[in-house]
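User: Round two. Same drill as before: sequence, then structure, for each protein.

Assistant: Same drill it is. First protein:
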Amino acid sequence: MKIISSSVLVLFAILLSACLPEDESEAKGANSVTRGLVTTVVSSEASKITRVYPGVLEPSEITSLSFEVGGKLGRLDLSIGQRIAKGDLIAQLDDAKFLTTIENRQAAVEEAEATLKQAEEDLERSEQLLERGAVTRVSRDEDRTAVLTGRARLKQAEENLVTAQEELEDTRLLAPFDGIVNSVDTDSFDTVSAGTVIASAYEGTSYEVAFSVNFSTVNQLSLGAAAKVTLSDDPDTVLDAKVTEIGERADTVSSFPVSVTLADSQGRIRAGMAVEVSFQFDVLGGNGFLIPISAAITDQEIPETAGPNSPSPVSFFVFDPEDSIVRRRDATMAGLEDNKFVVIDGLNEGDHVAVAGVSFLHDGMNVKLLDPKE
C-alpha cells in the first residue's frame, strides 16, 4: 500500500480551490452580508408644489430724459444711482443764442405794434375824410386792410416771442419726479439735438422681475397670479408680487418670457439685486408624499421639465418586512417641494423608503432595518 505524502495533499487542495468558480464564491460571500438600512417612513403629504426661478430686480419703468431743443450742453453733474427730486436741474444748455432770439423777437413785436398803431391812425383819418368826401371808399378800404394785416403780424410776432421764451425754458432739463438716475448717456459740453437722451431715471417705487419658464409652467400661469420674490442676499425678505406679462412666443426653444411686478417695495430694495421668484401650484391628483431626493435610485435621469402637469418616473428601494429585503419600487413624481420629491403614485403611507447608501443596494438584497437614532 502506497502512502501519499502531506505535501501532495496540500498541492491537491490548492488546485481544487483554484477550480472553483470565482463568481460563485463571491456571490456566497455577498449573500452572507446583511446591510443596515436607513429609511424614511412615508407619511408627510403636500398639496402644493413650489417652482422657483432666478431673476434680477429691475425698475418697472425707466424714463428717458431729453431736451426739446438742441444746443451745447453745459457741465453735466450726474452719476448713476444718484437720487433726484422733482424739479431738480438735471442738465442745462448754453442759452446765449436763445436770449438773442428773444431780443430779436421782442423787437419784432415792438415793430409790429408801431406799424399797427400807424395803420389804425390812418384808418381813423380815412373814415373822417370819407364822411367829408375827401377820399374814396377804395382808399378807406385799403387802410382798413392795412389794419387787419398789422394785427395779424402783431399776433404772429407775439406768438414767435412766446415760442422763443418757451425754448429758453427748455434749455433747463428738470427732473419730472423723485427718483434715481439709471444711466448717463452724454458728456459735459456735448452738442446735442432735440430728443437726444441725456440720462434716464426711474422712480424707485415699483420693480419687476423678468425670467423664462417652460411650456408646462406657462400653461399654469395667468395674468394677476400671485408670486413671491425672495432676495438672494437676504432670504428672510420675501415680497408679494403678481404676474403682469406672459409671453405668447418663446424666446428660445420652449422657453417663454414671464414678468412679475412687486406689489410693495422696501427701502433696502435696489435695482440689479438677485432674487428668486416662486409660484405654488396644486399637486396633480390633490396631494403627494414628500420623499427626500437622496432616496431616488440614481440610474434614472429626472427631466428638468418635471412639474405639476408633467409627472415623471422615479424609483426607490422599499423595505419588505416579511423577507427583510429591499425591493425596487417604480413611482411617479410631480415636482419638488422643500428639496423633496412630491410622489403622487407608487408609494403608500407607512412604507419604509431607503434614504442612505441607495447606490449600494440592489433589488432583493438582505437588509436589517436600523433605528434612525442608531
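Second protein:
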Amino acid sequence: MLGIAQALLVTMFLKTAMTSEKLIDIPLSILDLVPIIEGGTIETVLKNSLILAQQAEKFGYNRYWLAEHHNMETVASSATAVLIGYIAGGTKTMRVGSGGIMLPNHAPLVVAEQFGTLASLYPNRIDLGLGRAPGTDQLTAKALRRSNLNTVLTFPDDVIALQTYFSADNKKASVRAIPGEGLDIPIWILGSSTDSARLAANFGLPYAFASHFAPTHLEEAVHIYRRDFRPSVYLEKPYLMACTNAVVADTNAEAERLVTSYYQLVVDMISGNRRKLQPPVDTMEGRWSDYEEASVKQMTRYSFIGDVEKIKAEITRFQQQFQLDEIMFTSNIYDLKARVRSYELLMLVNGGVKKEVIQ
C-alpha cells in the first residue's frame, strides 16, 4: 500500500504527464484479441471487451479493432463482424473495425454486406482491415473454405471486388451489395510481410503491419510501402500503422509480472499446448526452455513493458525510427482491471488527447 506522501507524488506525476506536451503526437489505437482467460467464460470475456472499449474511448484512443481467428482455445473473436457490431453499439465516437477480416475465408459479397450493414448502423465509424492469412490451422481453413482452397491466391482480386461492391457505380451491376453500395468504408491492407506492403502501396490503401507477432520484416515493409505508394481515390499519401505489444503498470516490476501471461501464451503456441490465457507468475524460470525463451524474445522485439517513464522513452525511439502515422497496441493481460489500467497509463505517452486523423 502506498503511503499518503507517495500517493500524492503519484497523483502529481499523473497530472503533470496528462498536461505535458505529447512526445509522439500521433493517434494511438487498440487491437483486442479477446483473450479467453483460465477460469473465465466466453460470455465474461466478451463483456470485458466492451468494458475495455468504453474505457478506451474515454481515454482518447482512436480505433478499436478486433481480429478474426478460428479454432483457438485462447481467442473469442471468430465471429468478428458480430463482435464489431457489439462494440460499436456500446461506444459512441471511437472507430471500430477489423484487424482483420481474413478475406480468403469469405466471399467478398458477404463481407461487403456485413460491413455495409455495420457502416449503416454506425456511420463514419467502421474500418475494414483485410488479411490474406487464414487466421487458423490448415484443417480449419479447409472447413471454412470448403472446396475453394486457392482463395489466398485471389486476394488482390477479392480486394478489388470489395471496392467494386462499395462503389456507387456498381448500382447497374447484376450483383450488388445492399447494404454497402455507395458507402465510404475505409479498407486497410494488413500484413506481416513485404508482399502485403507492396499490395497496399500498389492499391493506394492504408497499411497496418503486425509487428506484435512478426517483427522481422517491419523495417523493410515500411520502406517498400512508402517507396512504392501510388496515390489513389482512397488515399493521397501513405498512411502507416504498426501494431505492437504493450504491458504498462505503475511499476516496472508489476509490468514484468503481468507480461508473463503473454509469455506463457506464446510458449503454449510454440509447444502446441492448447490452454487459455494463464494468470501471471512471479518468474518464467523453469516454465520455458532456452529455445522457447529466445523465440518469445524474438517475437516480442517490438514490445513496451514497464512503467510510464520507461515506455515513454521506448515508444519515442520506436516512432523516431519508423515515423508512423499511428500506433496500435495489443495487451494480453489476464486481469481486466490491470488491462484497463495498462491502456490508461499507455495513453499518458500521448497526453490523452484525440487528434484528427484519417477516416
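The longest helix spans residues 42-59.

User: Perfect.
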